[in-house]
Design goal:
Blueprint: H1 3-15, H2 19-32, H3 50-69, E1 77-82, E2 93-99, E3 116-117, E4 122-123, H4 128-139, H5 146-176, E5 186-190, E6 197-198
Parallel strand pairs: 1-5
Antiparallel strand pairs: 1-2, 2-3, 2-4, 5-6
Helix pairs in contact: 1-2, 2-5, 3-5
């Protein structure tokens, strides 16, 4: 399969705020492959992290708002990025960045021009067995198996989508609770991925 074309298709669903369809088609493609260790990602999510993520985003919003007000500006957006998890399998985490402006998803270069950031990392837990799968895959150079290489890429897409699903569901609850961070757009993806989700 052409993974580049497939990612573009997935990205169209993300832009339309249809993460469920994006997850569905990615899982479907992964299921088509011969049985492999990456398929343990199927039918799993990260929603057990909602309460902790909400707390993290509230704290980061306050910290970032204060930093940006020091330069006489207002916080307009937050960007959260998961580390390059396929090769950094020992620890999966998010980093947070704050902005005094907000652009769209058509040109993502602006996400590098943040006004504030936090040194506090949000550790992603619950997928430790997948971390071990990537460790085995990388250390034993299993990418020489074409099916495993495709499986690893589809699994990475699914992990990113499940992260975005976590943000979507956390955002829904935060709006009901009037949490401050829910007043501005939050963008999220994983390192080097074009699959960026926006909460509002």
């Amino acid at each position: 399969m052409d993974l580049y074309i497939f990612e573009e298709e997935v990205n169209e669903f993300i832009k339309k705020d249809n993460l469920d369809k994006a997850i569905e088609i990615t899982e479907s493609e992964l299921k088509k492959l011969p049985s492999n260790s990456f398929q343990i990602v199927l039918n799993r999510n990260l929603l057990h992290l909602k309460a902790r993520l909400n707390e993290y985003l509230n704290e980061f919003y306050k910290e970032s708002k204060s930093d940006i007000e020091e330069i006489d500006k207002t916080i307009k957006a937050i960007y959260c990025e998961m580390n390059g998890f396929t090769i950094n399998y020992d620890l999966w985490f998010l980093s947070g960045f704050g902005f005094s402006f907000c652009n769209d998803l058509e040109d993502l270069d602006w996400l590098g021009d943040y006004d504030s950031y936090t040194e506090n990392l949000f550790e992603i837990t619950g997928f430790e067995d997948l971390q071990n799968v990537y460790k085995d895959y990388m250390q034993n150079e299993k990418w020489e198996d074409e099916n495993l290489e495709i499986a690893s890429e589809l699994c990475a897409i699914l992990i990113t989508l499940r992260l975005e699903e976590l943000f979507r569901e956390t955002y829904k609850e935060s709006t009901r609770n009037n949490d401050l961070w829910s007043e501005i757009p939050v963008f999220v993806t994983s390192h080097d991925s074009e699959l960026v989700y926006r909460t509002q």
